[in-house]
């Protein structure tokens, strides 16, 4: 942890390059304006175990993921929030815990999993040893013990388990003077400490350290001061390190970075040095690189100190045109270099060894930096031209040369194009035609420059734009509106010989018709074909075979056909291989053409290109890559994967805007691009490529666009379980790769929803509205700015639970219930059908029984009577034959009586069958009428009726008929065999059954004959069975017949 000293202004957008500095760093700035940092005054940086960068400010703690920050501030109503917003230091523990020292709130322990803070601070109620003072240093020694400097005079052990601090005084061994607590500490392997404080540099021997740690009563640490480092000029030390050469370096606000002379060190300090360094507790505020120590200078930015010679050089850092000074550096565990400031946020520093910048700052002699043309002077340097004539970049001398002996048209006026021939340099001016400059063996102009214009040569007009010498030595001249000319013998032109000029334009008939008149670029492909990029009509190819012109093809943009070039304003052509050409356009991005299949594919900003206004295309030393200059920086395309990497001003390029014609590939395969602010030389072979797969983290979960808060940080969340009505989810994620993080790319997929990966570009969120209940798996993968993918990425299980009516148990229960209902329904239908069949059978059976009863009644009574009548009629015939008229008349009268009886019996049967039902009262009334109609019964017997029935009794027709027949039969038997005077018929009801008792007062005469000829009693019992009842007879005191059946 480091103490922040002074108010230093710092912020980086661009870095100037001093000639003598050993390294050059490009810079990316982060502040409140572009990432939402809680405050632009940054006090500390620390990279945690998950890959997040923690940024301490004077107004809160921030977690940075490369694109945005999450801020943690003090909340007076939340005891688990950070205790104070003014951050003094950050320490990342081995287990991932983050310790935070504050100005007014003591020490905080942050749990990244729960995102809760535990506080350890001064308390008036609890004696915990904490002074009420800022935390200046918080460190963990090699044995795992925590140390803290609290205020200027309190240094000691902190016990997180007890929440206590045991402070100790530090006193000078020689003078006994109390020394200030350290702002930075180097811990040696022998257990001793080397501290940098406001009272200079001192050494605490290991014996003192161990004695203090083992003895809670020890209150003083004796230290040995480095004498020369106690004067005013070296007070206020905030940093101390030991470099790889075992040299001690300190930093003070007054004197900057200084090396401590070894002769000032005591024997005990030298012994500690020789034991080796265990750790540095000052946040790695220096960077060691080869023989250099890189630190900061308040006045000059980055400071490079040669550890051997002490020689110093600087890299100025600017924000626009303003100078600024960095507070300190931070070298993170992954090798990244950062710097932070008091007032303008923090920056990421990237060393650039492959991109050389030539502009007014790095080379003041260059003049106007607006570059339109570039050409190589092999082994010497680069010719460049633009707004202020032609100049020469001497790469060995690292300077710009002007040649005053050239015509002023070449020194002062604007230049369009440069082309090196065997012995000279061809120069196209904007207003003065074409020039030729002879060049000697030293690469210098020699002799007089010659001018070719419409008045003295073959030149059509002053509107020349491009000159090009092909592999055959032919010179092609392109115009801004006058088409194309070819001179096959330019050497003869220089020797004043007559030349044969071939003209090409779009207006003439014949064979030499090209696509457009405004020539922007002339290019020769691998097969010797000549290509033209025209401003108004796409691209033209002129085939050349054995010195003769072949077919001329035009490639235009067709708005209705995607299988065409992307735009008609052409700027550049590049032949990559047999199956691939690339075309650059101004406004339509780039187009890839496969000549074998005649297929075109377009690439613009939607595919990752920096800008759709493109100028030049050049090959990389790696044949799989190409470079494109645009109006928004340079783009490097990996052609097998079609992945773009952008290079901007933060990478050290001249400006985001480049120019037409200002691109060149050197003979050593480096590439040069020029623009409005100078030009860049890129050694693509030396270009560092980040091949490390980026760490991917889930940084946030939102539910209905509101943060979804749980007890676990989204970084550590593995499963998300939500009810069906909370299914509008958004996920935020980040690739924790800080080298051009804005160019990191993402793809995500919700397994169960998305069939394919969703290519998100640099978008760091995904929305999934209205997820159906079910189990899903959300996955994210990412690539760094160089297209290296972390294919494994991260994943989060998402379970949307269904409503109760869609749960498995409910569905199972519903299915089971349905099955039961189906079975019950089938059973019910089956039983109903069975009952119906039984009912039909019962009806049929009843009908059959009725038929049997009717047959029996008819047989027993009517049939017998009819048989008797027939027999009587036979006898009458016999009597008539014998003329026995008296006997015949007597028998006829008897038969007449039998016929009347038979009619009565038929009527009784018909009456009973016609009754659907009959109550007992009606039944008794009919019974009385019957007995009254029987004169013999009325004369011989007195019939008495008795009813002991409270409720209404209803008899069916069958029941009424059977009961009537039983009573009728019983009465007939009484009349015939009992000799009785009274007949009692008694009806009673008992528990749903009807009892009928028929009793006479006669004496039954047994004369060997059964009742009614043997049929009477049997018929009565048969009818009782049909009633479902019983019939009994008692002959002790008269004859009593008892009938009982259920109603």
Explain the overall architecture.
By secondary structure, the chain is of the alpha+beta class. It has five domains: about 35-280, YVTN repeat-like/Quinoprotein amine dehydrogenase (Methylamine Dehydrogenase, Chain H, 7 Propeller), CATH 2.130.10.10; about 360-680, Methylamine Dehydrogenase, Chain H; about 695-800, Immunoglobulins (Immunoglobulin-like); about 805-910; about 915-1045, Histidine kinase-like ATPase, C-terminal domain (Heat Shock Protein 90), CATH 3.30.565. Strands 11, 12, 13, 14, 15, 16, 17, 18, 19 and 23 form a ten-stranded mixed beta sheet that branches. Strands 63-69-68-65-66 form a five-stranded mixed beta sheet, with no helix packed on it. A hairpin with a 4-residue loop joins strand 36 (about 390-395) and strand 37 (about 400).
List keywords for this structure.
single chain, 39% strand, 1047 residues, 5-stranded mixed sheet, 10-stranded mixed sheet, Methylamine Dehydrogenase, Chain H, alpha+beta, disordered N terminus, 11 helices, Immunoglobulin-like
Total E-strand runs: 76
Integer average pLDDT? 88
What can be said about the biggest beta sheet? Answer: 10 strands, mixed
List unreliable stretches of 5+ residues.
Answer: 1-19
By CATH, the superfamily of the largest domain comes out as YVTN repeat-like/Quinoprotein amine dehydrogenase
Q: So, CATH architecture of the largest domain?
A: 7 Propeller
Number of domains: 5
The helicity comes to 10-25%
**Highest CATH level, the class of the largest domain:** Mainly Beta
Q: What is the terminal-to-terminal distance?
A: 107 Å
Number of helices: 11
> Looking at the structure, what is the overall shape?
elongated
